[in-house]
Amino acid sequence: MGKKKTEKLDVSPIFKPIKIGNVEIKNRIAMAPMNMNFTGPNRYVSRQQMAYYAARAKGGTGLIIMEAAMASEMAISDTYRKYNNACLSSEIYVPLMAELVEHVHSFGAKFFVQLAVNAGRQGTSEAGACQPVSASPIPWKGFPEYMINNFEPRQLARACGYQGKIPEFDDHEELMDFARKIPGVHLGGETPREITVEEIKAQLADLGQSAKNAKRAGFDGIEIHAPHGYLMHSFFSPRSNKRTDEYGGTFENRIRIVLEAIHACRKKVGPDYVVGVRISASENLPEGFDPEYARRIAKRCEEEGADYIHLSDGSYEKMNDFLPDKEGQVMPKAAIIKKGLKIPLICPSVHNPENIVDVLTTGKADMVSQGRQQIADPEWVNKVQAGKFKDIIKCTRCNIGCLTRFVLALPGRCILNPTVGQEQWMDEYMKRPILPIKKRAWQIMKEIGKEPSVPVE
Ligand SMILES: Cc1cc2nc3c(=O)[nH]c(=O)nc-3n(C[C@H](O)[C@H](O)[C@H](O)COP(=O)(O)O)c2cc1C
């Protein structure tokens, strides 16, 4: 983007409020869900999580979508135990979640939470978890040509603590095979077990309950996690779904799981609560789906009661779509998926103000989401609004502090922003600007019969 061009840019489209369902959002910037491994022990919300999200809310971000929170008992016993994701599958998590929501709200952002079921075939039993379950028993495989910045087998092996010699290989695939054998390097999956219909129904029932818990905690909405090759995505794709029952074969059968997920949540949260869905815009691989197919999924989700669609792209097999190396990469796909869609569409990975204005003014999508850019600069929105373009700390999509550390189950950092991971020690993000506290956490504890012994004034 030319410097002069940006300085003259009319950013008013970014600051036009938008409604998702009944929720009014003050601008068009959403923070994409990202697990930074900040959750406290036993999956309870931590002070660091509260301060980290507060920083982005204080920075002007209109909508924050909390990282994938576990929404089924089966998910907890799966791979996700390694990542200590936040959790909403039981009401025991609600009081602290309510505290988090109240904190973020007090800094002026709307707050949704993403709810995730299983990791699907991208799961692993490496950390002592069960054998992964997926639509069909088909493993995934990482492809060397689709890797992302700083995610090469050599870097990953070193990051995982491998200190031995890494031989020179003529064939990149041999290097991948070598790296795959190093514990923690997740470049290909074990063969999953086909999930049973009974297990699908159990997960969806848990998902509905988790949506109810999210509403109770005060979140403004929930987002069903169905992108990136995980369990729900594995059903959509002819690549990974060879089932012959009611969850496989035809298009409608393949997407049945996500439509049932919408119904399961809706049943528990009522007609007026925001239920959104996140899907990948494409797979871009043989037998995989394309944006036209994703457009049909989005439309069916709308027809079945979804309030918005949040796009992402790719999967572990197509990492450079999942974590785009290029600015604005998903914009053309969003334009295809938006066609005929009435509910708001969120286009991911747009970091550049000029591209955001283009997305909004040409109708490619109704909002954009930023992941890594919001890590690098929590004040991105305030700076753009004030015309301080030069002050923006631009994410270089290096993946060093965020994604690589995530894969290693370490708390996230950012090589451009030393405050990431330290927000809890910064008064400006811990002190609530709005007083008095509504005491929702205490109210809820009382409701579930766990009233604190110390009365709260
Ligand atoms: C550390 C990290 C964790 C992520 N966790 C999630 C997640 O929990 N749920 C999800 O849907 N996407 C997750 N993502 C993907 C982001 O939401 C986003 O789609 C991606 O980073 C591309 O956008 P960006 O280029 O603005 O970062 C994660 C990404 C990163 C870097």
Q: Top keywords for this entry?
A:
457 residues, alpha/beta, TIM Barrel, globular, binds flavin mononucleotide
Helices and strands in order:
Elements: H1 3-7, E1 18-20, E2 23-25, E3 29-31, H2 47-58, E4 63-70, H3 73-76, H4 80-83, H5 94-106, E5 110-116, E6 133-134, H6 153-159, H7 172-180, E7 193-194, H8 197-217, E8 221-225, H9 231-236, H10 251-254, H11 256-269, E9 274-280, H12 291-303, E10 308-312, H13 319-322, H14 331-338, E11 345-348, H15 353-361, E12 367-370, H16 372-376, H17 380-385, H18 400-407, H19 427-430, H20 440-447
Parallel strand pairs: 3-4, 3-12, 4-5, 5-8, 6-7, 8-9, 9-10, 10-11, 11-12
Antiparallel strand pairs: 1-2
Flavin mononucleotide binds at residues 32-36, 67-68, 114, 225, 227, 278, 312, 323-324, 348-349, 370-373, 402-403, 406, 412.
Structure in a nutshell:
The chain is α/β, with parallel strands linked by helices.
